Structure formats: C-alpha cells, structure tokens
Automatic annotation (TrEMBL):
Lineage, broadest ranks: Eukaryota, Fungi, Dikarya, Ascomycota, Pezizomycotina
Protein name, entry field: Uncharacterized protein
Organism the protein comes from: Aspergillus melleus
C-alpha cells in the first residue's frame, strides 16, 4: 500500500514536471506580445514585411514627432534644462573633431529638433535650423553657433540677448581640472603655431 502511494506521487510529480518543461521551454516562439518576444523576433522580420528604406534626410530632417506642450511651467522648465544640456554638450565637443564626430553632432541636432518634447518649440527650432544649419567643425565653432541659435530663440520669445563671450562661464563644461589644463595647453599651442605661421609668412 505504501509503495503504491509513493509510486503515485512520483508519477504525479513527473507529470507536473513534464507540463512545466513544455510550458517554459517548448512553447511556440511566435508570440505577438513584445514583452515576451525573443531578440531574433525583433531583428528578423517576416519576408516581405520589411519597412521601406529610409534615407538619412528622412530621419534627421523629417517632421516634428511630439505633440503640442500646453503647460507653460513645464515648457519653461524643460527649456532651461535643455539649454543647459545643449551648451554643456557643445562645450565638451572635441576641438578637432573627426568627420564622423562632426556628422554625429550634426545628425543629433536635427534629431533633437524632431524629438524635442514640446512640439511647437521643436517646429520653431527646425525653422531656425533651416536658416542657420549646425556648425560642427570645432568646439569653438559649435559653441558659438549654439549661443547664436539660443539668441535667435530668445529674440523670437522677446527675451534678452545672451552675451556669447560669457557662454563658458554661464554653462560650465563640467571638465575636471586636468581636462581644463589640457584644453588651455592645446589652445596655447594652437596660438603659438598660428603666431609662428604668421611670422614665417611675414618674413
């Protein structure tokens, strides 16, 4: 009698284990629920269902994505935080960027204009970019362009113009002391090279 109960428990346990194994490991992998899809389901679409190929301009210079932002307080807070991020990013940009880095920043600025959470602000910013495309050839050029475009927005909003000579003081790059020293050293070397070139050409 006791042996029968033990055998019965073992049999029931084996059945439950088999059901659990089937449920967790052998279930179909074509679930439409994104939360339980495998990575391969995201990267390998069904044949013939691939989206139309987009060009770089389609992505970077398309229409604004976000809707209007009606809360004026949220809009002002977002604007202040965004300008801090924007100017800090430009202050950290390389002084002598590679072609790839220049294209990355240019593309980012256009995507930033499309995805800015305030739809009407994004639309205005796109208008400024159409007139004054991003300048990305160096840190100083990019930072100067960023201050200029900020002042274009300020003028549109009837706000005072910002003194671009003080941009580095107002929007600190967050650099460590050794980075600042390296930047000053590079700037001094650049000035010395320019001065030597002028003297050579003058003689």
């Amino acid at each position: 009698m006791a042996n029968r109960q033990i055998a019965r428990r073992i049999f029931i346990g084996a059945v439950i284990a088999t059901i659990l194994l089937c449920f967790f490991f052998i279930r179909p992998q074509d679930s439409s629920n994104a939360a339980i899809r495998t990575p391969s389901q995201f990267t390998n679409p069904e044949p013939g269902s691939e989206p139309a190929a987009l060009t770089k301009d389609d992505v970077t210079k398309g229409d604004v994505v976000m809707p209007k932002l009606g809360n004026e307080t949220a809009k002002a807070e977002l604007g202040r935080a965004t300008w801090k991020y924007f100017h800090t990013m430009l202050a950290r940009y390389p002084e002598e960027p590679t072609t790839e880095q220049q294209e990355t920043l240019r593309s980012f600025i256009y995507l930033f204009a499309r995805l800015y959470p305030c739809g009407e602000c994004a639309s205005h910013f796109q208008g400024h970019l159409a007139k004054y495309p991003p300048q990305v050839s160096s840190r100083n050029i990019a930072s100067g362009w960023g201050c200029f475009i900020h002042n274009e927005v300020n003028a549109m909003l009837k706000k005072p113009e910002f003194d671009c000579n003080k941009i580095g003081d107002f929007y600190d790059c967050g650099c460590a002391d050794d980075e600042k020293a390296d930047d000053k050293k590079q700037e001094l070397q650049s000035r010395n090279s320019e001065a030597s070139a002028v003297q050579t050409n003058g003689n």
